[in-house]
Q: What sequence folds into this?
């Protein structure tokens, strides 16, 4: 017989409570910021936020653009999702696919001239939107928050790197006798 917990869960205390509270605040702030950014991007340029993100990354690339693998890593999306986004941007003549110069099996995605003109307009306006959205916070608070979030990002990256390099804790499956 399994003992199932009864009643209310044990209340969180100390560091656990603060960790969960911080996690929830980051998630809520992210969702609120993204909702407003999504609305502004969609209403002003009839782009989805993922399309905008692809254009913004490609604007930072050299003229060769990025491969699908590079873009998916930068954007933290699967290459399957990226294919549909790039398809729609290509239909709008904002990006183009072309074979890699060194390996023709590899496809690169780059901005078209039209895509470059659009990003030259969109990116500064988006930056101004973000500045306006966060204008209620003093610059010193933004600097402090940015520093703290940078420490958080670095710590999470280091943790992920340690997890990837640690030997697997899974026990091997037992050998079965065959025959």
A:
């Amino acid at each position: 017989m399994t003992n199932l917990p009864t009643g209310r869960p044990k209340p969180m205390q100390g560091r656990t409570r603060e960790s969960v509270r911080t996690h929830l605040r980051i998630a809520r702030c992210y969702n609120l910021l993204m909702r407003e950014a999504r609305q502004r991007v969609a209403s002003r340029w009839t782009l989805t936020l993922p399309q905008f993100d692809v254009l913004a990354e490609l604007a930072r690339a050299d003229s060769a653009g990025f491969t699908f693998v590079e873009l998916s890593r930068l954007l933290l999306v699967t290459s399957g999702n990226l294919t549909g986004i790039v398809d729609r941007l290509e239909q709008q003549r904002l990006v183009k696919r072309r074979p890699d110069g060194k390996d023709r099996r590899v496809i690169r995605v780059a901005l078209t001239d039209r895509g470059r003109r659009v990003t030259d307009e969109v990116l500064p306006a988006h930056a101004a939107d973000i500045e306006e959205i966060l204008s209620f916070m003093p610059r010193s608070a933004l600097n402090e928050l940015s520093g703290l979030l940078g420490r958080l990002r670095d710590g999470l990256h280091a943790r992920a790197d340690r997890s990837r390099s640690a030997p697997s804790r899974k026990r091997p499956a037992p050998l079965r006798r065959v025959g």
User: Anything to note?
Assistant: The chain is about 65% helix and 5% strand. The chain has a mean pLDDT of 89. The first strand starts at residue 66 and ends at 67.
